[in-house]
Design goal:
22% strand, alpha+beta, 407 residues, single chain, 17 strands, D-amino Acid Aminotransferase, Chain A, domain 1, 32% helix, Dna Ligase, domain 1, seven-stranded mixed β-sheet, Rossmann fold, four-stranded parallel β-sheet
């Protein structure tokens, strides 16, 4: 029986990977630095291991992983979380000959994680992006922003989702229409102050024009082989997210959108991508063009939707790693929805001032075309695991750091 080691068991996207592979009869071991981790509760996890924190004790983690791979003889190593992925990729020489690692190299992952690099590559290929100001010296901040149009967005070059982003002027969101409403002051002093605040945590963030609400947001998920040949593609549309001012999706739907699909594939092809990635776009209602937001150079939170719709990225990645040939997967079911209820969509509901008028309704629990990211009758214990995993925020330093970084 083939064996796969999957890291980062805390995250629900990891649970999706474990379920995908376990359902195919693959022997899956799941690891994490805390026992209260969602994926460790899955019936499809044949073995569960607790390892040193990759963030706080990286060398000990690498030693553990090397010994584990030598001892158990895994066929494939899959790493869903970006920080762990970068650590392993940077030290990949330690694992050569021990297993298969079907992900891009460290330098390429780091480039895809850097919004500044991604914007420059996209512009060079004619892919629409928000107007962007690059700051390389804090002393040039005032000069480069002298003629800026408000509102503006300050984005860390390297961050996850909406974390670390500042809107100038401040905004709030109308949950029904998805419109951003100004409640702040448009002025230069606010921009300079906000930039310096973000810069103190995330050096030299980008300044971008603000893309108004009113346009749809899409994700283009892809799998490329080592020859940069597209092996799978999937497009979804965001319906809800948390935080409601912009963050990971909590409800989304499978769609066909050839324009954003081609843009996403074009960008990753230009980067000579290998493995999985998801490219995010937001349609600008002023010109109806999709504008690039960022690349997620690893598995993404909405991964369950792709599988429910017929594009099983974890299994396809495994097959590719094992050298098993397959035809490119480009067709899938549309109109399928997946929901991240615990706790994402609940948090959206609580924070949305128009929560009782949302469409689709928060209380639409039994729609035949909607499935949950975690809740499953076939594999029920991860639901309990997810609830318990939230307790780690009280004592686990990794999770506390994670929460702090997102405030």
């Amino acid at each position: 029986m083939p064996k796969v080691f999957v890291t980062d068991g805390y995250w629900h996207k990891t649970l999706t990977v474990v379920r995908s592979l376990g359902e195919k009869g693959i022997d899956v071991t799941v690891g994490e630095s805390t026992r209260l981790s969602t994926a460790l509760f899955s019936r499809y996890a044949k073995r569960r291991v607790i390892y040193p924190s990759p963030k706080r004790r990286p060398e000990e983690f690498l030693d553990f992983l090397e010994n584990e791979l030598k001892k158990e003889k895994y066929d494939v190593l899959i790493t869903p979380e970006e920080s762990t992925l970068l650590l392993i990729a940077k030290n990949i020489n330690r694992f050569e000959g021990l297993t298969r690692f079907p992900f891009a190299g460290h330098n390429l992952i780091a480039k895809a994680s850097d919004k500044s690099e991604v914007v420059k590559i996209a512009k060079s290929r004619g892919i629409p992006v928000p107007e962007t100001i690059f700051i390389q010296d804090i002393n040039e901040l005032e000069r480069k922003t002298a003629s800026i149009t408000f509102p503006a967005v300050i984005k860390p070059r390297i961050s996850s989702g909406s974390y670390g982003i500042k809107y100038v002027n401040p905004v709030r969101k109308d949950g029904v229409h998805g419109a951003w409403l100004s409640n702040g002051v448009n002025n230069k002093d606010e921009l300079l102050s906000a930039y310096k605040e973000v810069h103190s945590k995330y050096p030299f963030p980008l300044i971008q024009e603000y893309i108004p609400q009113g346009g749809d947001a899409f994700g283009v998920s892809c799998l490329f082989d080592r020859g940069v040949k597209l092996k799978a593609v999937f497009v979804h549309k965001r319906l809800r997210e948390y935080p409601i001012t912009g963050g990971p999706s909590t409800l989304r739907e499978s769609v066909v959108n050839d324009e954003v699909k081609e843009l996403g594939v074009k960008l990753l092809s230009a980067m000579k991508w290998f493995g999985v990635a998801m490219v995010e776009f937001k349609v600008d209602p002023r010109d109806n063009k999709p504008k690039l937001m960022e690349i997620n150079p690893r598995f993404w939170g909405s991964l369950p939707l792709a599988i429910y719709s017929g594009v099983d990225f974890p299994y396809l990645l495994y097959k590719m790693a094992m050298g098993e040939g397959f035809e490119a997967v480009t067709k899938y079911k549309t109109g399928i929805r997946s929901r991240y209820l615990l706790p994402g969509d609940i948090m959206h509901f609580i924070s949305n001032p128009d929560r009782f008028n949302m469409k689709p309704s928060f209380f639409k629990f039994f729609d035949k075309n909607t499935r949950d990211d975690i809740i499953s009758l076939k594999d029920p214990l991860p639901t309990i695991g997810r609830i318990l995993s939230l307790l780690t925020l009280l004592y686990n330093k990794d999770m506390q750091r994670y929460l702090k970084e997102r405030n």
